[in-house]
Amino acid sequence: MIRLFLTALFSALPFSAFAQQAAPQYYTFEPSATFSTLGISYTIAMMVAFLAVGWYAKSRVSTSDDYFAAGRSFGGISNGLAMSSNYMSLATFLGFTALLWRLQYYLIAITLSFLGGFVLISIAMAPALRRWGKYTSMQFIGERFGHTAKIVAVLCMIFLAQLYLIGQMKGTGNVFQVMFHWDYTTGMVVGGLVVTAYVTIGGMYGMSYNQTLQAIIMGLALIIPTAIILWNIGAGPASVFPPFGYGSLVPEMEKALPSYFDPFLTVNGTVPMSLKFHIGIILSIAFGTIGLPHIAMRYFTAPSIRNAKISTLWGAFFVGLIFFTTFAVGFAAKLYTVQVLNQQMNLQVQPKEADLLLVVMSQAFTPTWIAALPIAGALAAGFSTIAGLLMVIGTGIGHDIYSTISPNADDKKKVKMGYLFTALGGLATIVLALDPPDFLLTSVIWAFVVAASTFTPVLILGIWWKGANTLGAIAGLVVGGVLSGWLWFSKGVFFGFPLIQAGPVGNLVTGIFTVSAAWFTVVVVSLLTGGEKDEKVLREIDRIHGWRNYDPKRYSSKTFAVVTAAIALLLMIWSAMPDPAYKKKAELPAQPTITVAAVAQHQ
Fold it and tell me: What secondary structure letter does DSSP report for 601?
């Protein structure tokens, strides 16, 4: 009877086999035929629409300003929507649910750091970059610190963009795999070629129009299914607003998994999460957001400073809405899918299945025509971020580097170079994504570390401290890029010394060291080499802050530089010290299991 009851109870959640033996078996998601058909239909309709928009946008491209900055014509709400879809990648749409399954409460801290990054951008960088009036943050670095610094910045951009893109391409391949039952490689290549085509055709105009549309698709495709899922599992009337709709389920989660709301425990209460991880996300995620070149690029499309600020506010609102809705559906998935399968069925969830938990929950608890919506949302998320990153690659190489090599090139030649390098960037990413990491967010999170360790110190100091000079900027970019790249490939080992000692997202801890090292390097090298002497550059710094008169003492304080460098040095030392939290395994209370009766009450 028990076996028959369990079979009926979980008929909506397909799985490979029941665990009748001591060795655990693995859960496997299998979409229904109707689900796949609808997913294919939604996907084809979207791809046709995106290509059509890209083709339409091509007619608006006549100058390099049109191709690389959309004629600086995107206002507050539309730019905010485009900014949010550019930021909320497929790794966010699907990978956040998987990361919540693993990290639990700690993901709230990560989410707040993402939003905090937008606040820092609006305060520290957006107005100044828009007043500078170029196309990319690399171009700003070039004019502030010279051509050599710009070339180094473009190389750093290519590295972090590829890390970011690998996660998006992997997610695209996974989605096509679920819908079409193709192998991963075929799905990833097809998805990659589609987005590469429409970005190359339409440039920034095509990308911006599509990103606005994609943000709307993402919102509807996530919020509607999540509201229904929460309602069906017993969350009550609060389900109508998913970001807060899971509140009534909190007591049950506390009973099922007491460690869930402990900010210093994760992975079902088996791995401690020390203070370093919480400091790490501020430096890695929040500072990384500032340094992401495809986010900074959106500010150059705004027609004015005021529009750039409004865009940031709208972008933060839309990002917060999506992130907290993702947390809500991840909360539901943790409680009613993963824990039940683990504890009652003795089934284990592998990383590739964890990346699909949003789709699993949608098929289990919503009508089929709604259940297939997350497929559309996931692809829209993936395409939007891939587009932004390919655009920044095309602009960085086709405009910034090409303009340095051929300063007398006309607009038509620059646009052609943009077409060429955008397409080549897409093809290169497809090749690199053939062997992706297990978790969808792994390479994406490391891309934030690279951005925080390279662009952020140089951009912030370049805007706010006149003493930062060419040698300091180049040294900071090199140190940040080499350290973050080295630790990526060595898995956290630096000259035999493990900077990552434990934890599921140890790369965030490494960010404390790499970001601090880059900041310290920029300041110290600039001070030792006499600071910036070019008065034209110094006057520009006053101008981008809105001053009409030039004051050589403004933004020139050595005290600010020395104090921040000292803090950076202390953070470097602290991050490299052994973490007491990992000297011995934490002693945890026994975890009670979810009873079948408790689950049945919400079915």
Answer: T
Question: What does residue 146 show for φ and ψ, rounded to 5 degrees?
Answer: 110, 165
Dump pLDDT digits (tens) for 76-101.
788 888 888 888 877 677 777 777 77
Question: Residue 235 half-sphere exposure, CB side, CA atoms within 13 Å?
Answer: 27
Query: What is the Cα–Cα distance from 257 to 255, expressed in whole angstroms?
Result: 6
Return the structure tokens found at 397: 């190489």
Q: How far is CA 233 from CA 248, 329, 602, in A?
A: 10, 11, 5
Map tokens 């000079």 to a residue.
469
Q: What whole-number distance in Å separates Cα of residue 500 and Cα of residue 245?
A: 36
Q: Residue 266 phi/psi, 5° resolution?
A: -150, 180
Angle at 339 between CA 438 and CA 373, to 5 degrees: 65
Of 374, 370, 371, 327, give the one whose Cα is nearest residue 13: 371
* Domains of the chain and CATH, by start: 40-442 (1.20.1730.10)
Q: Name the amino acid, one letter, at 4.
A: L
Task: Report the distance separating Cα 41 and Cα 33, nearest Å.
Answer: 12
Specify the 3-state DSSP secondary structure of 285.
Answer: helix
The sign of the CA dihedral 282, 559, 123, 525 is: negative
**What pTM does this model have?**
0.82
How far apart are the C-alpha atoms of 77 and 296, rounded to whole Å? 17
Instruction: Outline where 396-503 has alpha helix (H).
Output: 402-405, 411-432, 442-464, 470-489
Pairing of strands 271-272, 347-348: unpaired
Q: Report the C-alpha gap between 331 and 100 in whole angstroms.
A: 7
3 state SS of 206: helix
Condensed to tens digits (0 to 9), the pLDDT of residues 518-565 reads 999 999 999 999 989 899 999 999 998 888 899 989 999 899 999 999
Pseudo-torsion of CA 33, 37, 43, 45, nearest 10°?
-170
Strand pairing report for 271-272 and 265-266: antiparallel
Residues in the chain: 603
Sequence-distant (6+) residues with CB within 8 A of 578 are 501
Q: Which residues pair with 497 in a beta bridge?
A: 494
Contact 194, 51 (CB under 8 A): yes
Closest of 588, 16, 24 to residue 344, by C-alpha: 24
β pairing state of 493-494 and 497-498: antiparallel
Whether residue 239 contacts residue 227, with contact meaning beta carbons closer than 8 Å, is answered with yes
3-state class (DSSP) for residue 30 = coil
As to burial, measured by CB atoms within 10 angstroms (0-12 exposed, 13-18 middle, 19+ buried), residue 237 is: exposed
Q: How far apart are CA 45 and CA 376, in angstroms?
A: 9
Q: Where are the beta strands (DSSP E) in 120-235?
A: none
Q: How far apart are the first and last CA of the chain?
A: 18
The top-scoring range by mean pLDDT among 251-265, 281-295, 472-486 is 472-486
